[in-house]
């Protein structure tokens, strides 16, 4: 049997070019010689089959495409030719495949970066720290750019920086008058709020929270009017903390939990990280559900359909740490998150694409295009981005 005339890197490169349809007539002839090499152990034709490569990508048990991508990046930096300088005699497809997968992803990223240098309209900027406070008199204070301490017309003192706003506890305010502010975080933004009792709240994109400037009475009550927020509640056994939502109320003494209350999702999802919370229905205040850490309750419009389940916390609270984790999620659900967090509009040119399911993670401070290309590699979809509109086609 003759010795193989190609290095592993050259094989990956040629298969990659074929996968991306970048070969001219001469290159196609060379590629045909390559796939007939005995050293490929009869796997060459499978490597030439685009559908077969995509099928491999969809098999999570076969390998980790993210790991392959990382390994391939290390491989192509600087010394790849030295690493694979020796010619090898037998090269099975199982050896080439991880590098091939990483190569496809890497190739997309490199080419897109070159395109972006010539097209400002293609940029989709990562999430920014931005928000606004709507005061009780209707005026607005914008957050995210300026820093420092300011005193509002009602004598409320707040300290703001680029990422959070802190309300100072005060004895000078009228304890008999409840003054409410609304913190509004737009699409493509996020921000944090520290209340006068030192409770800290991380507020996700496209969300609105109403809260008192200072807590009076026997309870501490806030209203998640819409959106998602993560609460780290300061413990006070004499004053329970209440989060009012469209479906019910979360009651706690001191704990960490996440509440998701987006109108277009038709339910309220409460996920407990530690401590204990009680969720009660707006329709039936006597119907209460107590959660344990690691569990969540999904409250729909009908109490009988409520679901309590144990979950992977990263999927529901990872956003606070800059990571969105998806597990067997439909593309429609996934792109809803992308719309809110990157302030883009998504259009499905093919309705059937909505029901495709994906698993993976999105680092919220990265350019979303890298994530979309990762989905393209493993799924039967294609994304076309123009300005801030993402159109989804079936391949």
UniProtKB/TrEMBL annotation:
- Residue spans making up a coiled coil are 9-37
In what residue span(s) does the FecR protein domain sit?
Answer: 187-277
Which residue ranges traverse the bilayer?
A: 90-108
The record ties this protein, via Gene3D superfamilies, to: 2.60.120.1440, 3.55.50.30
The record, for Pfam families, names: FecR, FecR_C
Q: Which domain of life is it from?
A: Bacteria
Q: Which UniProt keywords apply?
A: Coiled coil, Membrane, Transmembrane, Transmembrane helix
Q: Where in the numbering of this chain does the Protein FecR C-terminal domain appear?
A: 324-392
Task: Name the PANTHER family for this protein.
Answer: PERIPLASMIC SIGNAL SENSOR AND SIGMA FACTOR ACTIVATOR FECR-RELATED (PTHR30273), PROTEIN FECR (PTHR30273:SF2)
- This chain belongs to the protein called FecR domain-containing protein
Q: Which organism is it from?
A: Butyricimonas hominis
């Amino acid at each position: 049997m003759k010795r193989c005339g190609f290095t592993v890197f050259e094989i990956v490169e040629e298969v990659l070019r074929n996968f991306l349809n970048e070969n001219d007539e001469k290159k196609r002839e060379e590629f045909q010689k390559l796939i007939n090499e005995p050293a490929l152990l009869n796997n060459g034709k499978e490597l030439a089959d685009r559908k077969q490569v995509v099928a491999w990508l969809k098999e999570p048990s076969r390998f980790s495409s993210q790991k392959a991508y990382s390994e391939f990046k290390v491989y192509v930096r600087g010394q790849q030719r030295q690493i694979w300088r020796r010619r090898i005699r037998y090269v099975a497809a199982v050896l080439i495949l991880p590098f091939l997968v990483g190569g496809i992803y890497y190739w997309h990223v490199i080419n897109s970066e070159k395109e972006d240098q010539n097209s400002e309209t293609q940029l989709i900027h990562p999430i920014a720290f931005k928000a606004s406070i709507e005061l009780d008199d209707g005026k607005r204070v914008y957050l995210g750019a300026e820093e420092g301490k300011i005193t509002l017309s009602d004598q409320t003192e707040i300290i703001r920086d680029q990422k959070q706003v802190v309300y100072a506890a005060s004895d000078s305010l009228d304890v008999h008058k409840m003054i409410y502010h609304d913190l509004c975080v737009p699409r493509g933004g996020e921000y944090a709020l520290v209340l006068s009792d030192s409770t800290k709240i991380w507020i996700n994109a496209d969300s609105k929270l109403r809260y008192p400037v200072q807590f009076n009475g026997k309870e501490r009550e806030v209203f998640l009017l819409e959106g998602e927020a993560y609460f780290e509640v300061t413990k006070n056994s004499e004053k329970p903390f209440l989060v009012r939502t469209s479906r019910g109320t979360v009651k706690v003494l001191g704990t960490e939990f996440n509440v998701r209350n987006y109108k277009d999702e038709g339910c309220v999802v409460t996920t407990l990280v530690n401590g204990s919370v009680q969720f009660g229905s707006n329709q039936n205040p006597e119907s209460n559900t107590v959660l344990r850490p690691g569990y969540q309750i999904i409250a729909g419009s009908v109490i009988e359909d409520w679901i309590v389940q144990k979950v992977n916390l990263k999927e529901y609270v990872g956003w606070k740490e800059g990571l969105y984790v998806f597990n067997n999620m439909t593309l429609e659900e996934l792109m809803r998150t992308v719309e809110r967090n990157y302030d883009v509009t998504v259009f499905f040119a093919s309705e059937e694409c909505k029901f495709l399911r994906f698993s993976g993670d999105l680092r919220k401070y990265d350019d979303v295009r890298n994530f979309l290309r990762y989905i393209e590699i493993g799924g039967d979809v294609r994304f076309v981005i123009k300005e801030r509109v993402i159109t989804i086609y079936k391949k």
